[in-house]
Amino acid sequence: MAAALIEREGKVLLAKRLEGDERGGLWEFPGGAVEEGEGLRECLARELREELGVEAEIGEEVASLSHDYGDVEVELHLLRARIRRGEPRPLGCAGVRWVTFAEATGLPLAPADRRLLGLLGGAGR
Questions:
Q1: Residue 65 contacts by C-beta under 8 Å, 6 or more apart in sequence?
Q2: What is the pTM for the complete model shown?
Q3: Whose CA, among 29, 61, 79, 103, lies 20 to 30 Å from 44?
Q4: Least confident of 16-30, 50-64, 73-87
Q5: How far does Cα 10 stand from its chain's mean position?
Q6: Would you tell me which CATH number, out of the four given (3.30.465.10, 3.40.50.1480, 3.40.50.80, 3.90.79.10), belongs to the domain 2-120?
Q7: Across the chain, where does the E strand assignment appear?
Q8: Percent of the chain's residues with pLDDT above 70
Q9: Would you list the domain boundaries of the chain?
Q10: What is the phi/psi pair of residue 64, to 5°?
Q11: What is the chain's Cα-based Rg?
């Protein structure tokens, strides 16, 4: 799994999972599953186009972790990304929101994403 850390004016972009999906209704760093033959950066650029309608420049990995949800174990890689074209809109998710790290800690986050937020320093940023 690849996820994007997109920051703007002291805020980070989060996406809300669709209600019918696994962990539906929870907030997460935008991204998704790596397809066969795809690298992390390619995956993330594709997911950001499909889910948010933006073209993004994908940078370095800033954190990664393994998380066992019980029904599936995921290896989640958080990469820095910068939007080059477009404004994020919910095409493949239920919503998008720019929040401070402090605000993010108060949202219902997917557990793996909450752990990533903690690795980034959470509200201490």
A1: 75, 76, 112, 115, 116, 119
A2: 0.91
A3: 103
A4: 16-30
A5: 16
A6: 3.90.79.10
A7: 2-5, 7-8, 11-16, 27-28, 31-32, 55-68, 73-85, 95-99
A8: 97
A9: 2-120
A10: -155, 155
A11: 13
